[in-house]
Amino acid sequence: MAKKTSLYARALVESLKDASANEQKKRIMRFKNLLKKRGDLRLLSAILGEFSKLWGKRDGKIAKVISAQKSSASFLDLVKKTLKKEGYVIKDEVHEDLIGGAAVFLSNEYLIDNSIKGKLHKLRLLMKA
Amino acid sequence: MAKDHIFDIIKKELEGSDLAPAKEEIGKVVSVGDGVVQIEGLPNVVFSEMVEITRWPAKTDDKVVPALVLNLEEYTIGAVVLGEDKDIQEGDLVKRTKNILSVPVGEALLGRVVNALGEPIDGKGSIDATEKFPIERPAPGVLDRQAVSTSLATGIKVVDAAIPIGRGQRELIIGDRQIGKTALVQDTILNQLNEPEETRPICIYVAIGQKASKVAQMVGELESRGAMAYTIVVTATASDPASLWYIAPYAGCSMAEYFRDKGKDVLIIYDDLSKHAWAWRQIALLMRRPPGREAYPGDVFYLHSRLLERAARLSKEKGGGSLTALPIVETQLGDVSSYIPTNVISITDGQIYLETDLFGKGQRPAVNIGLSVSRVGSAAQTKAMKKVASQLKLDLAQYQELAAFVQFAQDLDEATRKRIDRGARLVEILKQGQFEVLPMAQQVCILFAANEGFLDEVALEEVGAFEKRLLEYMRNEGKDVLKDIEETKDMSEETQEKLKKLLHGFK
To answer: Per-residue b/e over B394-424, b at no fewer than 16 CB within 10 Å?
Structure first.
């Protein structure tokens, strides 16, 4: 079962990789019909789970750097260099709610939170305990 | 100045806390509903690990909701929410804690009312417990145990005489609703006040799915009589989520094990395990585990056997402590042959069966002696009680056999009539109201009087009053005899003679 799911997911990644957004939509619909025809529609959610993992890894693992203000080029360069060694590709975002500092999500598996908001949250929990 | 003072306090409070950013393993909530969350990510999470669900970035009023990992699947993880699932949204962040679900343990918990996570709910402030125990701990092995040999006095005549409970035993209390199951265990807790402080067992009452008002009433009663000093109440009330019902007995057991491992005697009451099984059935069905008989999951036997196996009398090398378990199971219309009752009957070392018919006839406690049994038996009885109980059990058994026959018979011979009269008086003497627990020596005296025929001439309806007067008389005139029985835990020929003399004097 796992092998089947993984095969479908890999096939979907391969077919969507170089297609335009419009073409991707059509291919996804065709993929769904194919699953229906073969009686494998119940695997859809598992296939999509596997697909999203493979799709994310297409260009390498993604590291999302979220900061309260636009990060300086030198800071981003430094982060980029450090994370490249681990095989991550960087995407940066601005989230004003963080008040200050930055947080890094490493391919939705790890979080390094050095934002002011995160620290205040930790403090709140410590004071509550 | 005041500002500096506040900073100093905060600094002191947070001393040693690490606020430096760390690499935390995270996952994402895929779906939430009915107290169960499906989580994506967290590939290294382990079974029974606590995870924390929070929003990111968290707002000031956002809560951190704990959850317990119970299903490890290929793409997702199933966890039960140990709190309110309304505080969780799809997409929320899930953090690993790398801790197996643990609860605070220790002396600081005595006299407190806590929830299934060990958090205080009695408004008496935080609990200063330094140690934590995981809720699931292995039961003591074969070599770590010794035979049950010390009695655990319940203060209830019928139990102490006919169905004795030993320290380290597991005795099931079974019966329909509203029949006095909780009253019986409440009396058992209260009776520990009659025990000398050095041997007094610590009591833990675990309320599973009970009405909060009933628990409050019980706590009030224990507090007013001074029994809370040696009692911990762990409660997962009817309004709490099923996940808390499920973990409450394990949490209570871990709290009890702390004292057991320190060489103390502990009594734990699970009120009740039928509701515990319901909670596990609800969780298992929501987790999509295959249902079995009565829709319970396949591991419902193991659910209770692993809990009750933790009750034990430890060997001397292990400190000699004991953990006595009194699980309660509620039956429907007296059906003891349904799934959960039969399971728990087979796990425990005996059962006290409370019967609706007897309750209706005014028998309190409504214990059916014929169907009740203690497999540890007289090994856990004091010598004094053993001496009076053997005759009592024989007379009662003969009475029960004849009682059915007497309804049809017209003429009875003298011997049979005497036996029936004696039996009826014994049944009467075993009646006992709530909160009227008796120390062992007083129980022995009254049962001795019944065995020796001192009640034979008392009118049936006068037996209760006779008992009260006799006990009053014994407390005044027979102090030496009571003291002797209490200290030696035996009744020598000499003491028996003294007692007979006193009884003749009373008549």
So the answer is: ebbeebeebeeebeeeeeeeeeeeebbbbbb
Lookup result for tokens 């009253």: B183
Q: Domain B104-381 carries which CATH code?
A: 3.40.50.300
Give the nearest partner residue to A121 out of B40, B58, B74, using CB atoms.
Answer: B58
* CA-only gyration radius of chain B, Å: 27
The predicted-structure confidence for A68-105, as pLDDT tens digits, reads as follows 888 888 888 988 888 888 888 888 889 888 898 889 99
Q: Which candidate in B55, B145, B200, B375 is catalytic?
A: B375
Residues B56, B74: Cα–Cα separation, whole Å: 26
Phi, psi of B339 (to 5 degrees): -60, -60
**Consecutive H or E run containing B386:** helix B383-406
Predicted TM-score (pTM) of this structure:
0.87
Residue B25 to chain A, least CA–CA distance (Å): 4
**Does position A122 have pLDDT exceeding 70, yes or no?**
yes
- Reported ipTM: the value is 0.71
CATH-assigned architecture of domain B25-100: Beta Barrel (2.40)
pLDDT confidence of residue B259: 97
Give the start-to-end residue ranges of the domains of chain B.
25-100, 104-381, 384-506
Cis peptide bond upstream of B66, omega within 30: no
Entry field: residues in chain B: 507
Of A110, A115, A123, the CB nearest to B26: A110
Beta strands per DSSP E along B7-130: 23-33, 36-41, 49-54, 65-72, 76-81, 93-100, 102-105, 113-115
Give the integer Cα–Cα distance in Å for B155 and A26: 79
Q: Are A64 and A104 in contact (CB under 8 A)?
A: yes
Query: What are the structural domain ranges in chain A?
Result: 2-56, 61-128
